[in-house]
Every structure is written in structure tokens, then in C-alpha cells.
Amino acid sequence: MPDKLSGIDAMFNARSVAVVGASGNEGKLGFHVMKSLIQGRYSGSIFPINPGKREILGLRSYSSLIHVPSMVDLCVISLPSGLVPGIIRNCAEKDVKGIVLITAGFREIEDESGGRLQDEIMYIADEAGIPVIGPNTFGIVNLHARLNASFTPEFSDIRKGGISLLSQSGGMSHLMGFLSMRDDFGFSKIVGLGNRCNIDFTDMIPYLMRDPDTQVIALYVEGIDNPRRLFEVARGFMGKKPIIAYKVGLSAISDLASKSHTGSLAGRREIYEGAFKQAGILTVESSLELLDTAKALSSSPLPEGCAVAVLSGQAGPAMAACDICEKEGLRIIPFSEKTQKRIDNLLPPMAIRINPVDMGPAWYDSRAIRGIVESVLQDKAIDAILLCVMFASANEGSIRALSGLLTQWGRKKPIVCCFSSPPGIWGEEVKSLVEKGSIVNYATPEKAAKSLSALWKYKRIRESAQGG
Amino acid sequence: MPDKLSGIDAMFNARSVAVVGASGNEGKLGFHVMKSLIQGRYSGSIFPINPGKREILGLRSYSSLIHVPSMVDLCVISLPSGLVPGIIRNCAEKDVKGIVLITAGFREIEDESGGRLQDEIMYIADEAGIPVIGPNTFGIVNLHARLNASFTPEFSDIRKGGISLLSQSGGMSHLMGFLSMRDDFGFSKIVGLGNRCNIDFTDMIPYLMRDPDTQVIALYVEGIDNPRRLFEVARGFMGKKPIIAYKVGLSAISDLASKSHTGSLAGRREIYEGAFKQAGILTVESSLELLDTAKALSSSPLPEGCAVAVLSGQAGPAMAACDICEKEGLRIIPFSEKTQKRIDNLLPPMAIRINPVDMGPAWYDSRAIRGIVESVLQDKAIDAILLCVMFASANEGSIRALSGLLTQWGRKKPIVCCFSSPPGIWGEEVKSLVEKGSIVNYATPEKAAKSLSALWKYKRIRESAQGG
Predict the structure, then answer these.
(1) Listed residue (A216, A297, A214) closest to A13, CA to CA
(2) How many domains does chain B divide into?
(3) How far apart are CA A184 and CA B141, in angstroms?
(4) pTM above 0.90?
(5) Neighbour-count burial of B45, counting CB atoms closer than 10 A to its CB (0-12 exposed, 13-18 middle, 19+ buried)
(6) Which 123-182 residues of chain A touch chain B by CB within 8 A?
(7) Which pairing describes strands A243-247 and A216-221: parallel, antiparallel, or unpaired?
(8) Domain that holds residue B159
(9) How sure is the predictor about A191, in pLDDT bands with cuts at 50, 70 and 90?
């Protein structure tokens, strides 16, 4: 039986894809899957399978998977559930490497025939050693391979990046994909686990840990079939790459909705949080926080320690950031004497010149701002910088004045920013700094502070893994 | 001595504005203030004051405020601090109705001369009965009057709406203004209170309570000079219009930064939260939450009770929303028998047909979706609807199918949504529903749920105010 990991790899880097249930009819999911592959400019071969057609969307169509004249690495299935077992048998015969099973109507339906059907396909797939993602999934996307094997063509427009998302919900995957487009950050892989036939979190995590295109693993979790196994697997990779989890279904009503057993509510939340922590998994409280945290961990260096300098163009954002830093275990420490002296020379006699620094009074003097930021970057006692800059008509040039410095230092110390401006202003400058990996940028100072604290939390996870 | 409230009103609806320190030089704030007024298409008269110029940005300039040939309602001052007392005397002589004092260098500087200077200008202004906003403010904006009396011309591009922001930080005001542009919602007034000479929260709240263009008052608070007075004023207006506060400076370090007295940390947070609650002020934890909450309260009807229906195109977003609803005191109750029967007829036999409803299985059937939403809207036991819809290529028409229904019901029951889609898709449909006041829309299901809970919290505040 082939190795599961190599099957998953063959699937995500498929050289050829067959779509069983391909269609030219917009009302069918098989149409949208075809569109995803074609519009996503997938470079491998695409084989539509549909017994009633000779051509679909301009591509030669085959009446059966068996008749495809060459190898098929990945088979995407979108057909009524009753037909699925036969197709999986075809896949085994054809030596397909992996399956994405979009079809719903298995374990999740009220009628017990769904569960039986799922057992049947699992048996056939396991016998043949074929990994099956789904059933009841929207599909998988590998942006580095330009492979969009999902029913949502728009996923192809997501930027290529280092975050891989494993999700039990298609809706949440769509949400996070769309949010990434709006905020312009990238994904590596987006995987809808669906009802988890023979591929679960515990199978995908080892694969993503090896995957060179994945820097961070983000999990959206509803119910966990075998929590102990998940925590064991995660613990085994502790400190290798960050894993971040957003767990829902902690309320009584959504627990009921996920058909899980209802236990004591507060207890369950605590139990989960404790277990995630022990396994070295960072936890977050919302879909946006999952993305914010993943963004920082996928592109920023880690801080050596928890000493943070808060530098702000205005006092308010600095205070909001400090509140979060302190709550999350970061320390706003005094600068070295040398650094403080340099700052004192650059700022007029205003109150807030110690850490946090309100650079407001020097805000129209780019040379002074540059000097302050530089002296703090050079201060060896400072492990990370939180930089907040709100655009004003009179400080328009400040980001240009800082960009050389940020580029020079951004790979050495974490520089987490909130550069905020009206649409159409500063967008290109910020984008360029983000793409170079010099800074991570957030919509608010609070998000910047929270994400910086996640960098420090992961640094401690890594240290404890290396220490053990 | 004239009434303070009428002075504030004359200021925010000024028929004429003088800019003392107006300049044609981009390096001066007086240039940017002029640009704000001109580019913002202010319809009143603008009088630049600068002894060295005869014309500034195409407008006739005067050597002194005294020489302006007509009435001046609002005087914006951007001059070195030492010159300010003389200008305030000119304002008194000229019978100016209100002053925006942008100049910094008063109470906030280390040198005690700043405090003395602030006492002096306060004395002159109080004697003359002139309200002074500032010093050390970016200015004020009244979007309904097209009055941008600030040093940030871009504020004129913010949409007109029902939220008025009173802020102790220029940086935070800029941040929130820019966020509103990105998310396309509107403000009524944005007020930078600065160092609060003779106008503080307690003066502005009564004015905004009377102001027909203000539906919600949002406060960004650092330190409060006289907390007891603030809470008394707010309590006096309890239930009239919502007041929402974001208080920073609760950590030891940011407390130090705001030069306030450092007390017991947890105690202070609790004391503040208790006091805000007793005064009927809603509190939030971040700048984004301040805006999210204000957005809902400025445009949605309030729910009659706490019974919420969660309807979602996909199960995941529903579960995330339910977690928040339950935590925040909303109730996800069973539907009436009639409603449940109608839903059962519209959905295939899948598990999640009770509240919350996963409409996924019917997601490509607009008629079914419409039927489900309609039956829930008609269910008298349901006080509010939380509707989550993630775009997929195959459900593109769903929002169009729902829009008539949402328009019909949106002013009767709160319909709080998370319609999420790639940029360029659904934008116009969502915008149209939002502008009609039919729905409030959020970037995530969690934000939608949190904001809906704020509607219910405010409903209870209003009830308790009416009950007392």
C-alpha cells in the first residue's frame, strides 16, 4: 500500500486532473470545477469525464475515467452519492493518486444510508491506499502549483503565500479566502476537509510540515474525532512550524449543531485550550484573528525576547497598542541610555519620549522620525518594534523616508506596523514593504500588538520544544 | 454670557470660517486647513488670516481677524502657542462663535509655561463665552454641513452618516476615519477634543444628543478629568441615543504614558466598566469594535427581545456566530411549529434544519432560500436575524433573490449580515441594501453576532431608562 504522505503530495502537485461529473451546464458543480481549473491556468492536463459529452468547455471529454489515455494523479468527483463507490473503484483500477470528493449526502445526512455509503467508499479507498479529501468539500487549492480543484473559480485570484489552511467548513474557507483578497496577503494551500473520509487534520499536518511552500498551518476546527491523536501529532512537530487553531462549537447551541456530545460548557473550553497549549498549538478567538496571526507568523522573524518598543506618530494608537502588549505578556521596557539620549535630541520637550514614543511633535520632520526609528532598531535590548503611523496630509512623505530603514532591518527584528491611510494613498509603499517581508501591516494598532504577541508566544513554544 | 450649546452649534454649522495662520506653504498646517475647507466644498465664506499675504490659495487674505469685513462664526487657529492669547482676544472682540485651536505646546509639554499659557487662553475664552475645541487638536469635521475644519483634507471624502465621534486622540480619529472609507460607512461629526480647554466630553454629549444628524455617539477616551461629571451627564441622557466608549490607558504603561495616576490595574478596569455600565454607556475593547458597534446602532432597528435566528449558507459561519451569540446573552431559540414545518419542506433531510439553519443543501435553489428566510422573518417569536452568506460561483444570484425580502423586512426587525465575496462581486447589491437601511453588513460572522448583541444591550438600556 502506498505511503499516505506521498499520495497527498501527488494530489497537491498533480500533473493531471480528471473531473468526474464535469459539465458545461452552469447549474452543476462540475461546471464550476472545470472553470476553476481552466481559469486558474492550471498547467497540467485536464480530463473531463461525462458519458454524455464528447467535449466540455473546449476540452475533449471521456465517457469513463478508465478510458483516459494517460495517467491521472488527481480525480475530482462531483456526482450523486450513489454513483460514488463505482467511481472510487475506477480510481483504484486507474491507479489515481488522490481523490477530492465534492459530493455531499454521506455521514452528515439524517438517513443512515449516508453513513453506510461513507463506510463503503472509505473501505474501497483504504484498500487501494488512495487518500480521499471530503466528502462534502468545496475542494482543495494549491496556489503555488496553480491548482484550483474546487468549485470556486475565484480562489485562483488569491495571492501565493506561506499560509496553509485546513478547514472543516467550506463557508469558513471561502470567508478567509475572500478576506485575504481584500487585505492582499497570500495562501499556500486551502483545504476543505469536509466529512473526513480517510484524510483528517492528523494526516494533513505531517504533509504540511514537510511542504516547503507552507510556513504556517492554520486550522479551523469544529469537532475533532480523535482529539488525543491530533494533539500527539501536533506535539510531535512542536516548534517546527507554527500551528494556529480556531475552534468553534464551544457554545451549547453550536455544539448541538455539530452533533457532538454536549458536556459542561466552560469545562470543555478550558479542556480544549489546555490541550491545544500543551500540544504547542496557538489558539485564537475569531476567523480574523486566525488570519492576522497566520500573517505575522508566515512572514516575520521571531523576536529574541519580549521587550517591545512602541513608536507611534500619535499618542492614541500607542496607548491602545500598549494596553494589548501588556495584557498579552509583552514588555514595554525603558531604552538604553544611548538610545534615549538620541531620541531626546530629536524630539522637542514633550512628555512621551520614553517607550512608548509619541513621535507626533516631530512628525513633519522625516529626518527626526528616521533617527528615532533607527536608534531604537539599533538598541540591542529591544527585541521587536511596533510602529503606528496614521496618515495626515502633512506627513505624506514619512513612509518613503522610513522605507530604506525598514527594508534594512525588517528581516532581523520583527517590525509590526499599523500604517493607516485613505484608500489610494500609501497602498503601494506598504505593499512593497510587506512583499519584501520587511514589515507586517495591520488595519489597527490593537491587531498589530496582538499579532506581535503571537510571534513571542510561538518563540516560546519553539524554545520549549528545543529545550525538551 | 452666551449659552455654550448654541456656541457649539454655531461652530459646527458655521456660515463663515477664518483661518488664523493660513498659508500657501505646504510645510505649514495652515495650508492643509485651507485645503480641507476648499477641497471639501465648504459652502460658507472662508477668510484666510496672514499679515504677510494678500491672497492665499486664490482667496483674499486679511492681515488680522479684526479686519475681516463680515461676521466670523468659526475661527481655526494654527499659530505658535505664544501668539494664541492675542488671537483669542481678537476672537472675543470680533464676536466669534467658536474656536478650533490646532496649535500644540500647552498643558501637554514638560515646561510649566505650557500649563500657564493654557490657563490664560481658557480664562479669556471663558470670559467671552467662546467654546474652544483643542488645543492640540487636528480639528473638527461636520460631514452634513460639508465643513472640514481640520488639517486633513481627506476627511472630506468620508461618507455622511449617523455616527459622531468624540476623540481624545487625533491619531485614533484618523484611523477611524480611514477605516470608514475602506468599509464605506458614514460619520456625522468627527471631533478631536485635544487637550480640552473649555470643551470636554460633558459639553459635547448634550449637543450631540440634540443634534438631528447624530444617531450614535462614539467616544474614544484616554484620561477623564472629571469622571463623576461624565457619568452624570451620560446618565441624564440614558436611552435617548446610544453612547459607546472605547477606553484605553488601562494598562500600567499606557496609564503612565497618559500621565494619569497609576492605581491598581484590574481594579481600575473594573471600576471604569462598572461606572460606564451604570451610566448606560456601552463599552468596547478595540477601535474596530467601536466602529462595528456604532455602525449597527446608527442604522438598525432594535430587537424587541433576545431571540435570534441564525441562518447561514454554510454550517461553519453559523457555528462561529452561535458561539458569540450565546456568550453575549442572545438566545438561539427553537422556531414555531409552523416555521419549522415550512423549513422542513424546503430543505432536504439534512441535520441542521432547526435554529441555526444550514441552508447549504438548498443553496443553489433561490426559491428555497427565499422561503426559509421569509418564514423566519414572519415568525413572531424571532426578534432578530443573523444571516451569513459566503459567495460561491454557483450561488451568485442568491443575494438578488433575497434583496426584495430584506428591503421589505429590514426596517421592522434587525437583519445583521455577513455577506462575503471576492472584491468586485456583490459589492453593489450589499451597498444598496446597507444604504436603504435594510441590513447591516460585517466582514465576519463573529462581528455580525457581536454587533447584534450590542443592539440588544442597548435595547435593555433604553428599557431600563424608560422603566426608571
Answers:
(1) A214
(2) 2
(3) 31
(4) yes
(5) middle
(6) 138, 151-154, 157, 167-172, 174-175, 177-179, 181-182
(7) parallel
(8) 4-296
(9) very high
